[in-house]
Amino acid sequence: MSTSLQYLTNEEGKKTAVIVPWADYIRFMEDMEDLAAVAERRDEARVPHDQFLADIRKDRGEAGIFV
Question: b/e map of 56-67 (b: 16 or more CB within 10 Å)?
Answer without folding.
Answer: eeeeeeeeeeee
